[in-house]
Amino acid sequence: xxxxxxxxxxxxxxxxxxxxxxxxxxxxxxxxxxxxxxxxxxxxxxxxxxxxxxxxxxxxxxxxxxxxxxxxxxxxxxxxxxxxxxxxxxxxxxxxx
Length: 97
Known about the structure:
Mean pLDDT is 82; it is low at 88-97. The longest helix has 11 residues, at 86-96. The protein is mostly beta strands. The relative contact order is 0.19. The protein has one domain (4-96). The chain has one helix at residues 86-96, and strands at 4-9, 12-15, 18-24, 34-38, 43-52, 55-60, 63-72, 76-83.
């Protein structure tokens, strides 16, 4: 998955022509409330582990990512998506175990 900053429309954003969406689970039983999907073709990507009200961590294809919602201009929103360094990944996994 490419990293960078992407325009957020509602709860979805485009990365290299692929549309991704943040979804909320209807029934949360031991799982994080939010998860990430690729819309077309449909693919479940990962659970989103919330670390701040507007920031999440997730893993995809053995890489750890940070996804952060932020304001961009008056009414526009954006998503920043980036890799976490190996040391950051180890600290994050230690929090989960």
